[in-house]
Each structure stands twice: as structure tokens, then as C-alpha cells.
Write a structure and sequence with these properties.
The protein has about 280 residues and is mainly beta. It has three helices and 20 strands. The longest helix is centred in the first third of the chain and has 7 residues.
Length: about 280
């Protein structure tokens, strides 16, 4: 990925050459550390993680390099598709306490590795559970991919929020504890570069001093369906502010979701891993 400035509506590039390692996400983790620290405050934590040293190799782990890291920069082959793209959950999210294999089923074939950090700490929404396993949404291509992670390899928390984006109405709703807490008119993708539908999540929160149109960028765990890359990045869809209010209520972006600045300030406090459900309503 080049160091060029990202055009409007790209999830901005944050450094040269990100690959399937922590080197590629380090700058994002540093840039977003203050924001990421703020968003985790909305979590309710509870037990379920292992007491094993987080630096140790997970039981049944996969040697590094044998499968790709699952990140916004990578593509994972053989990942199960989300079985319920518009479904809600109980708000359970998990954070890997060590690098851990991602499998295509409980005790199944390893298809990827999940690192502890992406844009700050990695938090993933849980969409299903089986004894000893959690099924999570993945941030990698193809969009709406899922995978299974050992329950002993994660820390668990609950987020009370869901973000709903209605493309037909061009509205974004912040839902808290099942009730609409706030709602805004937003800008969405054009017919040529549409905002993808389905169930995704808040992957991170970071600042970019090279961009002036938004104080904070909120990358999602989903990619443009028509742009393989954009602005030096991998086509990651993001929520961000926009200075021209005429965008709101219109299909004008390259797939990202443009929101008013007051909306962005509230959304930046929502915990990472929170579900974002995008529909055609």
C-alpha cells in the first residue's frame, strides 16, 4: 500500500506496505490508541478467557505463515459465509488474548490466524457458540466471512449497542439496549460504488493527520463490492464525517458512510466489535 493521501471516502492509508503481520497495523494501533481506549469503556466484561500467558502459543495452534492473518488487508479462502446477514445478537464480543487459529468449523480446518491487534485491540462479534468455541465475523475478504475460534483463547465482553444503516432511507441509527438512541441522515455509496449490505462490525477507530474532512475514521469489517483497492488501501468501507451537509440524504460516496460530525463523535465512543447492520430499507 502506498503512502499517498487517500481520496474522499476511502478508509485512509496509514503507512507503507501493510502485510499479514503486526508491522502493517502498528501505525493504526498507535494512531488510534486514545480513541480505542475510550471505546472499550462501553464494554461490560465477564469471565471466560484463559489464564494462560497471552504470549504463549495457543493449544492446537498453527505455525506462523501456514495460513494468512485475517485482517482488512487479507483474503481468507474457505471461510464460511455469515448464515444470518441481518440478524442481531446478544452483544457478545471477544478479544483474542494471543494469536489464535481461525477454523472453518469447531475442531475444523485452519483457514487463518487472528492477531490480538488490528486498529488497536481486536474485538470481534460472536454470532454463534458451541462448547469450547465461538463463531465470529472476520475483517478479511470476502466480506461477510466468518470463522471459529477456541473459547479459551479469547476475553469476552458485552456491548449494549447496534449500529443500523438503512440505505433506502439513507439513515443511520444508533441503537442502545434495543432502543433507538439517536438517528442521523447520512451519505451512502453511489449505484456504481455501492455501500455493501449485510452484517459487519466496528473494526477500529483511528485518526489521520493527513485528512482534514474527518477527525476520526471508523473502519468496518467489510469491503467495497466494486473496488478492490482505493486510495492506497484495500477498499475497506468506513464511517467518517463529511464537511458538506448536502451529502447527507444522498447516494454520493465511493461506498463509505458519511455522517455529520456530531454523529461521528458519538459513534467513536461505541465499543469496537459492535455490530453494524446495513440493509436496503
Amino acid at each position: 500500500m502506498s503512502q499517498q493521501t487517500a481520496p474522499p471516502d476511502a478508509a485512509p492509508s496509514r503507512g507503507a506496505g501493510p502485510g499479514p503481520s503486526r508491522r502493517g497495523i502498528l501505525f493504526g494501533a498507535i494512531a488510534g490508541v486514545v480513541i480505542a481506549a475510550g471505546v472499550v469503556l462501553g464494554f461490560t466484561f465477564f469471565g471466560g478467557g484463559s489464564s494462560t500467558d497471552p504470549s504463549s502459543v495457543a493449544e492446537g495452534g498453527v505455525p506462523p505463515g501456514e495460513v494468512p492473518v485475517s485482517s482488512t488487508y487479507t483474503e481468507v479462502t474457505g471461510a464460511p459465509a455469515d448464515p444470518d446477514p441481518t440478524g442481531t445478537t446478544e452483544g457478545l464480543v471477544v478479544h483474542p488474548i494471543r494469536e489464535t487459529p481461525v477454523r472453518d468449523a469447531p475442531d475444523g480446518r485452519p483457514i487463518a490466524r487472528m492477531e490480538t491487534t488490528q486498529f488497536g485491540d481486536t474485538w470481534l462479534p460472536v454470532i454463534a457458540e458451541q462448547p469450547g468455541w465461538v463463531q465470529v465475523l472476520l475483517p478479511s475478504k470476502p466480506s461477510n466471512s466468518t470463522g471459529w475460534i477456541r473459547a479459551d483463547d479469547v476475553e469476552r465482553a458485552i456491548t449494549p449497542y447496534v449500529i443500523r444503516v438503512h440505505l433506502g432511507a439513507k439513515k443511520l441509527q444508533l441503537v442502545q439496549d434495543g432502543e433507538v438512541a439517536d438517528e442521523w441522515s447520512v451519505g451512502i455509496g453511489t449505484p456504481e460504488t455501492p455501500t455493501p449490505t449485510g452484517r459487519t462490525f466496528l473494526l477500529g477507530a483511528f485518526t489521520n493527520p493527513n485528512e482534514t474532512y474527518s477527525d476520526v475514521f471508523l473502519p468496518l469489517g467489510v469491503h467495497s463490492p466494486t473496488l478492490d483497492s482505493f486510495g492506497g488501501g484495500p477498499g475497506t468501507v468506513a464511517i467518517h464525517a463529511w464537511p458538506d451537509a448536502s451529502s447527507f440524504g444522498n447516494a454520493v460516496s465511493n461506498g463509505c458512510i458519511r455522517v455529520p460530525n456530531d454523529a461521528l463523535q458519538k459513534l467513536a465512543k461505541v465499543p469496537l466489535g459492535t455490530l453494524v447492520i446495513i440493509d436496503q430499507e
